[in-house]
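Quick start: what a row looks like.
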Amino acid sequence: MLYKYNPKDAQKMTITLTDGRSITGEFFDGMRINLNSIPKGKIWYQTRHNDDGDMATPVTIVERQGITVNFCGTLISDMDLNLEKETEIEDVDYE
């Protein structure tokens, strides 16, 4: 199911990648956001959880590509990380 972008449904999140870069945005836990509803200028990312039973913590992130297996949630941000491939996450901070 796709959800319409609504900031009220999100929580603020900062993700730090294994290469040291960080990104802050609106995290939609378990929600696939309809791309047509995302405001212009925003970048969308999808996150993946691991296979160890923790389905709430993202362990990888990918930019402008859909994740089908182990989908964790969607991150919408003003920041463009220019990710060329799925990238590992070092730390997640929910604000």
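That is the whole record. The CA atoms of residues 12 and 95 lie 5 Å apart. The first strand starts at residue 2 and ends at 3.
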